[in-house]
Amino acid sequence: MRKRDWPGAVFELLVVALGVLLGIQASSWNESRDDRRRTTQVVGVLRQDLQDGIYVEKRAAAEVDEGLAAFDAARKKGDRPAPYVFRIEGADNPPNTAWESVLQTGLADIIDPALLFELGFFYSERQGIGSRYSHYARFVEDSILPWEDDPSHFYDDKGTLRPEYAANMDRLRDWRRFVGITIKTAHCLNGRLAHPREPGRSCRVNYGPRFSPQPV
Hints:
By secondary structure, this protein is mainly alpha-helical. The chain starts with 5 loop residues before the first helix and ends in a 24-residue tail after the last helix. The longest helix is centred in the first third of the chain and has 71 residues, at 6-76. Helix content is 65%, strand content 0%. The protein has helices spanning 6-76, 97-103, 113-144, 163-192. The protein has a domain at 42-192. Residues 210-216 have low confidence and may be disordered.
């Protein structure tokens, strides 16, 4: 500056400014790379959880379909079989640990808001459907298993399945129907998570004309 070397001074200032800009850009690149890696990890956990649920629920649905079909066929022949019983080993309700863990990672920052809402709704509904099964299973434990060796206990004098047992089998049929909807929803959400930041088609559940979601 004393020598009044203005071109040299300007050049040094440009070098310093360029260094600062490059440093900021490098930091931004690192943050972007970390953000992509975190998104991939979080989305991977959710997609694996959805796929595991689809696999388990498909097997359960197939088993229930087969059991109910065999019961209905026996009734058509005039037999009086014990009510068909479907039992799940372990907890009645599906675990929500994957969803709860993902929420703690700041999911709202890396997933499309509409998709985030639909994921939350899905996991809430799956817990509710699990509670339906719990109601069914408690009745099975208390009122069916103790009489399994005496199928006549479940029928009245006319050979009609007693109302309380028919109602519990209807609970199982309802649970099976809801599981079918859950499987379809999980498939849809898994597809949406292939592009988690982008808006896409709705995966909201449709339980029929009385409870179908309204367009937004």
